[in-house]
Amino acid sequence: MSGPLHLYDLAGADEACRFSPNCWRTRLALAHKGLAVETIPWRFTDKEAIAFSGQGKVPVVRDRETTVFDSWAIAEYLEKTYPERPSLFGGESGHALCRFVNQWVSEILHPLIARLVLPDLFLILHEKDRAYFRKTREAAFGTTIEALADERERNLALFRRTVQPLRSTLAAQAYVAGTAPAYADHIAFGALQWARVTSPLALLAADDPIAAWFGRMLDAYGGLGRGMPAATGGQIVP
Ligand SMILES: N[C@@H](CCC(=O)N[C@@H](CS)C(=O)NCC(=O)O)C(=O)O
Fold it and tell me: 66 in helix, strand or coil?
């Protein structure tokens, strides 16, 4: 192998602030495989910078002459290309089960978390991204970013009910993948790390088994996740 892989990674106004849930999955997957990575800060409107990938979203990974986009495709690429390194899926059935975790987190948890954190997230974006972000997200959610702050209490209760299967799983075992973290954990971690980095809102009660697992995940891989500061707050409070 020659040199680090490159990851186009979503950044806020502060280029050190990396908050994308899909990019966090990939960061942890790369760390799990023990692969060195150089991250390249990317903003929503920097479409030209990743035009070489043939689409406009991150994560995008470059591994020598290979370009891969979409976090699930990247995980599959890493597993296939680096089979001698620690497994992300734990075999064929683990791979299949992990796809369910991927879809559940992406299709159910991400929209719920977005509704909770968007008002705070909007404030940490680079100025050049704000009009684009407002337009696309307000169209997607059918409401204004500011109005989402008013729904927060209801959405928080819904989020806490929805994560019950994750809660009961983590009450019974240390990690989603079993006794040690793997890609299913990276996926769930990415969602909560997105919230942690963008919003001071406490999504989980302190005694929630998910919170204990999240603490272990923040410390995993040499504290990779904890190295990213949490949002400090003082922003929009409904
Ligand atoms: N299915 C894709 C989703 C990628 C995605 O939505 N990325 C967001 C950042 S988390 C993005 O780049 N959005 C750009 C935009 O909305 O224009 C994956 O898992 O990688």
Answer: strand
